[in-house]
Amino acid sequence: MRKYLLTIVLLALCVAFIFIVFNLNNPGGEPPITKVIKDIAFLDTGIRNYKLDNGKYPTTTQGLEALIVKPTIGDVPSHWRNDYLPDENLLIDPWGNKYLYFFPGRQKDFDIISYGKDGKVGGTGKNKDFTN
Q1: What is the distance between the alpha carbons of residues 30 and 22, in angstroms, rounded to a whole number?
Q2: Who's near 72: CB < 8 A, 6+ residues apart?
Q3: What is the mean pLDDT of residues 3-10?
Q4: Using an 8 Å Cβ cutoff, are 47 and 111 in contact?
Q5: Which of 32, 44, 123, 128 could form a disulfide with 132 if both were Cys (CB 3.0 to 4.6 A apart)?
């Protein structure tokens, strides 16, 4: 009975330790890879809604910031709204780097890219590149 109780206590301490370490490394509680996938989906939707309102995508120069602040350079949108994104923090990936935006895109109409944790092209795992 004592060994069983000791085993349960040690197991509970290990689980608590893992939970604490995970939350210290990721205060939002969401795994970074999950967050980057969700962020890119939000950004993709915001860009598509921008086009629905204004007839064209933001330029590369206007960037993703066009979803937060009305562009004043290039083709200034005529029907811009300030509700394309719920939060401007979505412009930063889970590793603190800005998401990149290119129009026209190389693989789609437009590209949204995070180069992962290392911020460099290529890689695997957390260093993998993520795109829309």
Answers
A1: 9
A2: none
A3: 51
A4: no
A5: 44
DSSP β-ladder status, 111-114 and 100-102: antiparallel
- Say which residue, 68 or 8, is predicted with more confidence: 68
Residues with Cβ < 8 Å from 11, sequence gap 6 or more? none
Compute the residue count for the chain.
Answer: 132
Average pLDDT, the chain: 86
Whether omega for the bond prior to residue 104 falls within 30 degrees of 0, making it cis, is yes
Q: How far apart are CA 114 and CA 124, in angstroms?
A: 13
Please give the model's pTM, rounded to 2 decimal places. Answer: 0.76
Rounded to whole angstroms, how far apart are CA atoms 62 and 54? 14
- Of 51, 132, 129, 39, nearest to 92 by C-alpha is 39
